Amino acid sequence: MKKFKKVSSSIVVVLIISIIAAGMVWSVSATRKVDATANDNIKIYYDGNLKAFTETDGSKISPVIIGGRTYLPLRAVADLVGLGVEWVSDTQSIKLTSNNSGIPYKDNTPVQTQPSASTAPSTTAPVSSTPAPVNSSKSAGTLEDPIKLGETFSWSATEKYINTTASADYTCTVKKVEPITYEEVTKLGFKVTSDKDKIEYAMITLDMSVSNAKITSGDAYLHLPFMRYVSGSKTPSGASIIGGTDYGFEGSLKKAAENVNKDSQGFLKKIKAGEVHNYKYEGKVILPLAKGQENYLWLTKDSSLEYSVRHAFFKLK
């Protein structure tokens, strides 16, 4: 029996979903007013990584406090952990589905590691002899100046990671953009949107490198503090589609990050305070796109920054 990942022990998912139409008339006996307070300071971690929830227009979703409990929109949490959400207006019901047995739900069991072997101080993957051109403009990566397809974007980030601080230098290149059909996405084990007139999908190949990676205290599985996540796609006007599937299939970006950080016996390596690591990997992301429009890949580059500047955008054509 599958176990659903706890996003946080303090998070209670409330039935507030974006697919409920505005102005829906509810039974008087089933509704009541509550006092609620939005708290922008609450941080949500998933698999040890700080997550940012946003509306389709890119605006921030803040956790809400009601009666001492913390609530998040059901749609945002369901998208994060790979659940299907359906609103049935006739019966005023919300249906959650696990989509497909191929989706990798995780429990709290620690990943197996080699008990006695120490972590090597450096891990370096082969580097291409023909590096992509680098965009070093100060405005590079913004909606006004997105990174061109095939160009490499570099930046540095220092972020809180659980009970430590992680810092590294990063580079990212969108190497390939391939169309992928609804049927192909379904075969990989993922549910697709039913709005085929507005949404299409692409398989994006990213080349990532991490250098000077270090933490200030404790230890952690090497790939986790430095994993960069695809938030979704945006159009030049700023319209956004939240979600990019970078896990759960062979060749995915997250799987590639794990594979390059395994030792010769197949155990995941750990990084300890005082060590410096370097590594490189290439992986794929299934990305929803606004049909008939120009789209940019939307990557979270540094979660410690203000929301308006924490992302980088990459052209897909």
- Please mark out the parts with pLDDT under 50 across 5 or more consecutive residues, or reply none: 1-29, 99-129
- Describe the global form: globular
Query: Fraction of residues in helices?
Result: under 10%
* SS-derived structural category: mainly beta
Largest sheet strand order: 9-10-11-12-17
Number of strands: 19
CA radius of gyration is 20 Å
Strand content: 35-45%
pLDDT average, as an integer? 77
In terms of quaternary structure, what is this?
A: single chain
Biased composition (Low complexity): 112-134
Protein name: Copper amine oxidase-like domain-containing protein
Pfam families: Cu_amine_oxidN1 (PF07833)
Domain Copper amine oxidase-like N-terminal: 60-105
Structural description of this entry:
Residues 60-105 form the Copper amine oxidase-like N-terminal domain. InterPro entries: Cu_amine_oxidase-like_N, Mao_N_sf. Residues 104-143 are annotated as: Disordered. This protein has 317 residues and is mainly β. The chain folds into two domains: 11-97, no CATH class; 134-315. 7% of the residues lie in helices and 36% in strands. The chain has helices at 74-81, 182-187, 253-260; strands at residues 11-14, 37-38, 44-46, 49-51, 64-66, 69-73, 84-88, 93-97, 134-135, 152-161, 164-180, 199-215, 219-221, 229-234, 240-242, 270-272, 277-290, 296-300, 311-315. The strands form six sheets. The chain has a five-stranded mixed β-sheet with strand order 9-10-11-12-17. The chain has a four-stranded mixed β-sheet with strand order 1-6-5-2. The longest helix is centred in the N-terminal third of the chain and has 8 residues, at 74-81. The chain is globular and about 55 Å long.
